[in-house]
Amino acid sequence: METIDNLKDKDLYLHIFDRYEVWWEDTTSHSEWQQITEAKKDKPVICFTEGYLLHKNRDAYIFFMSICSAEEIGDQIVIPSKNIKKLTKTGSRNFLAKEFEYDTYKKVPKARKQPPQKLPE
Fold first, then answer.
1. d(C-alpha 109, C-alpha 89), whole Å
2. Inside any domain, residue 109
3. pLDDT tens digits along 31-66
4. Which of 20, 37, 82, 99 is least buried, going by the fewest C-beta atoms within 10 A?
5. Mean pLDDT in the chain?
6. C-alpha separations of 95 from 24, 50, 99 in Å
7. Is residue 71 situated within a structural domain?
């Protein structure tokens, strides 16, 4: 495992984010017609989200699931603090500058498979 002490200069950390599992309460709604007696049985729903914590304050937690460069995130969700039922930290992730360099992931040509050799009889 790489530590800050054994990283090269080009391997600088861009971000360090904590990863969480979140159980939270959300509204439920229907666009179809419903009998009043059935509608009275409706309840809020419990949702599950897993992602990286971007920011939190007394009003909300902001999570994201994807990161696509030094400064862009995607799949973002803002969950009101009062809606969170259970919040569990599952780890942390250090994102390195070199991980976002395209050439890091260029495919290397596969070596040709050699046909099996026959054993001498």
1. 39
2. no
3. 999 999 999 999 999 999 999 999 999 999 999 999
4. 37
5. 85
6. 27, 18, 7
7. yes
